[in-house]
Amino acid sequence: MNQKNAIKGRGAQLNVPNRFFELSHEIRNDFLEFCRKESEPADKNKTLYLPVFPKTIVNKVDSPDLGLMYSMNPYQGCEHGCIYCYARNSHEYWGYSAGLDFERRILVKKDAPKLLEVLLKKKSWKAHPIVLSGNTDCYQPAEQQFEITRKCLNVFLKYKHPVTIITKNALILRDLEILKALSEDQLIAVNVSITSLSEDTRRILEPRTATINKRLETVKTLSDHGIPVNVMLAPLIPSINSHEVLPLAKAASEHGASSIAHTIVRLNGAIGEIFTDWVKKTMPDRSEKILNQIKSCHGGSLNDSRYGKRMRGEGQIAEQINNLVKLARQKYFNDKGMPKLNTTLHNSYKHGQLKLF
User: Fold this and answer.
1) Distance separating alpha carbons of residues 81 and 210, to the nearest angstrom
2) How many CB atoms sit inside 10 A of residue 110's CB?
3) For residue 220, which phi and psi values (nearest 5 degrees)?
4) Minimal CA–CA distance to 165: which of 173, 343, 344?
5) What are the tens digits of pLDDT across the range 69-110?
6) In the prediction, which pLDDT does 14 show?
7) Whole-number Å distance between alpha carbons of 259 and 333
8) Of 61, 164, 274, 309, which residue has the fewest beta carbons closer than 10 angstroms?
9) d(C-alpha 178, C-alpha 172), whole Å
10) Residue 129: count of CB within 10 angstroms of its CB
11) pLDDT (tens digit per residue) in 222-239
12) How far is the C-alpha of 307 from the C-alpha of 46, rounded, in Å?
């Protein structure tokens, strides 16, 4: 990509139309020419934090690919800007584009800790691990300002409730003391996403995420303090990072990870158009090869919603990738594994303290 023409610090390079809207916005050439003559930016490229007020915060996820789980998202949209992110499509439900809007219109749920506490105090609620976050990263840059994730972790600690975290940001170490306290009762597991060992690849795939070295250091620090860590090699993208499976697994193991997990990239909904535009601008010499190899993993399409197939893919390339991951587990994680979280304590702490009678 010509860096002079690229939108700095962003993954997506366009705003695709929202599928739920009849009308769409278009930047016309005459407007661009006006901006040029007036020496004004056509796009200010600013991130906006927008408060929203949902009535509930925990969602039940019943996908057969994931098994029964619950998740909560303190933020919708994500400034990390990962070009492949499956969560982009969900931004359309809020009235925004899955493209640049997803990275620049961040919805902030300040009431999340209160809503979580209301749920955990319900007599009908039975403890089950809740994932922070199933959709967007709970430690994205907005968390530095709003500290919603930190407040939610304190709620989980107060009520002795198990929680799982998924992130690719070293900011999680800010809350190390809370995580250590949760770990004492086996109430915490952390998933750190590491998609490449190459900073060049990381910068174009995930422009506003923590560096690879910081993520590996995060895995080591958490592991050294007894907090179990699973490294997510997700997604694996043919001809971009799929060749890194073994070195990624080796690095994860050497830094103390207990296990690895993976998915093969799929580009559902608007993500297909966003990714195609990006890869043709970023890697023009091999963009068609990348797109065709992704399609070969999903029955000839970038989109794949088939349960049982969409996460692991099918065909020769997908089989090669899946076999590499299997080999990596045998080689580097044969005697390791993630512990099961403790769900037995919460009922006695429904009111925030140990029930005596």
Assistant:
1) 12
2) 14
3) -65, -45
4) 173
5) 899 999 999 999 999 999 999 999 999 999 999 999 999 999
6) 87
7) 6
8) 61
9) 10
10) 18
11) 999 999 999 999 999 999
12) 38
Which of 294, 288, 239 lies closest to 266 in space, CA to CA?
294
Q: Which amino acid is at 45?
A: N
What is the Cα 124 distance to its own chain's centre? Answer: 30
Which of 143, 151, 68 lies closest to 117, judged by CA? Answer: 151
Identify each DSSP E strand in 214-254 by its residue range.
229-236
Yes or no: say if 230 and 265 are a contact pair by the CB < 8 Å rule: no
Residues 6+ apart with CB under 8 A from 104: 10, 45, 46, 47, 48, 77, 79
Provide the token pair at 272. 């297909």
Tokens of 258: 């207990």
The closest alpha carbon to 90, from 135, 148, 33, 140, belongs to 135
| 189-216 pLDDT, tens digit each | 999 999 999 999 999 999 999 999 999 9
13 pLDDT more than 90 = no
Structure tokens at 219: 């895995």
Residue 239's DSSP bridge partners are none
